Amino acid sequence: MVDIRPLDLITDSPWFSGLPEPALQQLAGAASIRPYPRGGQIYTEGEVTTEVYCVVTGRLRVAISSSEGHDFAIVDLRHGFWFGEPVLASDAPRVTSVQALTSADVLVIPRQVVLEVAEAYPLMYRNLFHDHIAATRKLYELLRSMLFYPLRARVALRLLNFAEDYGVAAKGGTCIDIKLTQNDLARLALGSRQRVNKVLRTFTEQGLIETRDDRVVILNSEGLAAEVEPG
Question: Coil, strand, or helix at residue 103?
């Protein structure tokens, strides 16, 4: 278990920005941190839950599945990312699954406590609204790329997104500081592993990326961004 105070995560959350100390303390008092092994499910599609969550450590993946068992990875979540807020407005089952890609720790707060704070401090509803609008905009952008962009553009977009979230300065470029397999990219870009591998080889030959110690390094972000165009 990690040594971290729930109050610190709650204070830094955009959901609870501007709330007074008593409200933050109320949320922190009801919070707990759960450990998950790699591959553990925070919740599954169709499950009814009554909690909201925040990533403390590790990396989680949000995905949807078809009736045939095929899944589409929507987004990966990292430290400080809050999720699960639809439960604050509805008892409907979850429409996505969230799985730990690495061992992870997740902060959990019961829905009822969050709603009590929101009723006492309506500012929280505005915070949630703004956060939800930003997330919806990103989802629409993702849908547009998946529906209308060729595979090269989809792979390039996913690499740029990972660089934004996990990028660290490296010699000659930006290193995506997580292990990103071809299977990961295939699931994220809706392509076969073989086709994604071919795209990555092409990007490498063009001098856009290279692989160092199981990490992808973006050497030419502008060139990679130029690949992100509708087909």
Answer: coil
**C-beta atoms surrounding 17 within 10 Å:** 14
Separation of CA 159 from chain center = 14
Question: In terms of CATH architecture, what is 150-227?
Answer: Orthogonal Bundle (1.10)
Q: What is the pLDDT of residues 82-113, one digit of tens each?
A: 999 999 999 999 999 999 999 999 999 999 99
Identity of residue 31? A
User: How many whole angstroms separate alpha carbon 16 and alpha carbon 54?
Assistant: 12
What tens digit of pLDDT does each residue of 218-228 get?
999 999 999 98
pTM over 0.90: no
CB atoms within 10 A of CB 5: 11
Q: Which CATH number fits domain 6-146: 3.40.50.2000, 3.40.50.200, 3.40.50.300, 2.60.120.10?
A: 2.60.120.10
Report pLDDT digits (tens) over 27-44: 999 999 999 999 999 999
